[in-house]
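hey can u run this one w/ glycine bound, need the structure tokens asap thx
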Amino acid sequence: MDRVRVELGLRSYDIVIHNGALEQLPALLHEEAGDKTRVMLVTNPVIYKLYGQKVQKNLGMSKEELIIALVNDGEEYKTMAEAERLIDLLIEHKFDRHSLILALGGGVIGDLAGFVAAIYQRGIDYVQIPTTLVAQVDSSVGGKTAVNHPNAKNMIGAFHQPRLVVIDPLVLRSLSQRDFLSGLAEVVKYGLIADRDFFDFLRDNAEKINAREDQVIQQIILWSCRIKGYIVENDEREGGIRAILNLGHTFGHAIERYFGYGHYRHGEAVAIGMGMAAGLANQLEMLKTDDMEKILELLKSLRLDFPDPEIPAEHFMRLMSMDKKAKDGRLRLVLPTDIGKVQIVVM
Ligand code: GLY
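ok here u go:
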């Protein structure tokens, strides 16, 4: 069983990564969160059928002790209205500061359940049990929780670290190829921003990754969580280095906005954005042509070489400048300067 410790003083926690970890959830919860008399399992109907029912059975708690809250799948349910509905349930079932929320699902479930945990009684414990690759390597780690505003994604939120993250890579077997690739884009991002050895590992193991071999998938999740954990430890509230996690994202968010959310998967847009960032860095003579080509080749070998979408340049610039990370109307782009190194450029 692999563990990554995220050291944040009183808010420190473990990320447990293990093929089959879901089976060991009751023991892990007992060890890390203590025994709770009230638990709410937040999940979506599909994940509930696939894994939630088993989790419910394994926890062996009564109906009064374990409440199941189903949230429909999709960004459109990551709302204040859903958060309020969950809070109503917590109040109805007399949840207090010693209660626990379990977030079993992808980014929508994790962000929403985490947000509810952050604000209910000014903060209660929650445990992330991510079931998509993007959630396992990115959104479940680092304590960013949020719901969407009708006009802007993730606009209402809080930093609230989970008590524990339990990652069972075997659950990815039920993930569609498109969702798998979307998560893989975030995995590649870690090699580009922080670690040449990881980049080389991804290149050397591309075939095994494409075949979704269990051992290699577990390894890339572990490596990604180590890098993400390290960045969060050093900049919990994104005052500095954490911003490098946005490589490809400013381009990606512009692509997602132009076509409407849902047209591109987030990771698909990020993969295109990382290719664009490499191209721009090369044009600005910040990145050698040879390194740019290596980046594009890695994206290709992992089937992340999506064609650039056709967006008129003036639209693209306008959409990029609407990015949440823009400051005083100026763009802040994360650009690669070498394999495993990036720089934040204000334009
Ligand atoms: N997903 C970017 C971050 O956690 O900061």
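The chain has two domains: 2-171, 177-346. anyway lmk if its weird
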